[in-house]
Design goal:
The chain is built from 10 helices and 3 strands. It is mostly helical. It folds into 2 domains: about 210 residues, Lysozyme, CATH 1.10.530; about 70 residues, Seminal Fluid Protein  PDC-109 (Domain B) (Ribbon), CATH 2.10.10. The chain has a 3-stranded antiparallel beta sheet with strand order 1-2-3, with no helix packed on it. Helix 4 crosses helix 10. Keywords: Disulfide bond, Hydrolase, Plant defense, Signal. InterPro entries: CBM5/12 (IPR003610), CBM_sf_5/12 (IPR036573), Glyco_hydro_19 (IPR016283), Glyco_hydro_19_cat (IPR000726), Lysozyme-like_dom_sf (IPR023346), TAT_signal (IPR006311). It holds the Pfam family Glyco_hydro_19.
Length: about 300
């Protein structure tokens, strides 16, 4: 991992479960989400029980459990299709599992497709905004950038352990409660620094400041942190990567927002070309044009 764009992210950022799950196919006649009983913490649930969580979505118990939170304990619960309205869990991702496997033939088993699809509910506008072409272009752009960041979804954690103690900013009022060397790069966009773990955790409703290891142990959490950056952070750019793709600014602007301070404007054309080539390959897999403005 490099300190790249996260090192460039300033204090403005602060303003801002445990195993992957498989999304079930929608039932032939989906019931109303409101027809299921509300989830209760501490109540015992048997496998097959369906509840309505506080977000209005339905979840089915994959394993019996004593009322674990469906959005955190994802080994025990999986989203359940109901309605077709606001309470419906995330539907079909524009990238199929077969296409995902084609994109990442040598990926680390940690980076599961089910972990990715389980994370999509955190940012429902991702790859669902605009035309079918734009949706696929955004998905391809996101996956191309995370491929570049992780060597093809191979690396879960930063490889240069010498960097680990450097990602603690003690000037923050919350400090580094997990330890000075705990905030190294993890996940698809290699989240690093205590203030980024704090900001991402606050946005996602997960205590990543005190438990940064969740990002390397829970595939859905790892994917959610990448989607947090993609959908909410501008980094050294002027727009979020999500906005760049939805508003047709072009793939080049996603590079600028992720690592523009070290790659764009002629600083590292080989790295830019690597990202662009991967994006072009992924759009070809998805059967869409890559669009214009590919470089930064």
């Amino acid at each position: 991992m490099s300190r790249r764009r996260f090192a460039a992210v300033t204090a403005a950022l602060v303003l801002a479960g445990t195993a992957p799950v498989l999304l079930p196919a929608a039932p032939a006649a989906a019931a109303s989400c409101s027809s299921y009983p509300n989830w209760q913490a501490g109540k015992w649930y048997n496998a097959g029980d369906i509840v309505r969580y506080t977000d209005g979505r339905a979840y089915i118990a994959e394993h019996g459990n004593p009322g674990y939170d469906p959005t955190i304990s994802t080994w025990y619960w999986e989203p359940y299709a109901c309605d077709n309205g606001p309470g419906t869990p995330v539907g079909s991702f524009v990238v199929t599992e077969a296409q995902f496997n084609q994109m990442f033939p040598n990926r680390n088993p940690f980076y599961t497709y089910s972990g990715l699809t389980a994370a999509l509910s955190a940012y429902p506008g991702f790859a669902t905004t605009g035309s079918d072409t734009v949706k696929k272009q955004e998905a391809a752009a996101f996956l191309a950038n995370v491929s570049h960041e992780t060597g093809g979804l191979v690396h879960v954690v930063e490889q240069n352990t010498a960097n680990y103690p450097h990602y603690c900013d003690w000037s923050r009022p919350y400090g580094c409660p997990a330890g000075q060397a705990a905030y190294y790069g993890r996940g698809p966009i290699q989240l690093s620094w205590n203030f980024n773990y704090k900001a991402a955790g606050d946005a996602l409703g997960i205590d990543l400041l005190n438990n940064p290891w969740l990002v390397q142990n829970d595939a859905a959490v790892a994917w959610k942190t990448a989607l947090w950056y993609w959908n909410t952070q501008t980094g050294p750019g002027t727009m979020t990567p999500h906005a760049a793709m939805v508003n047709q600014a072009g793939f080049g602007q996603t590079i600028r927002s992720i690592n523009g301070s070290l790659e764009c404007d002629g600083k590292n054309p080989a790295q830019v070309q690597s990202r662009v080539s991967t994006y072009q390959r992924f759009t070809q897999i998805l059967g869409v044009s890559p669009g214009g403005n590919l470089y930064c």
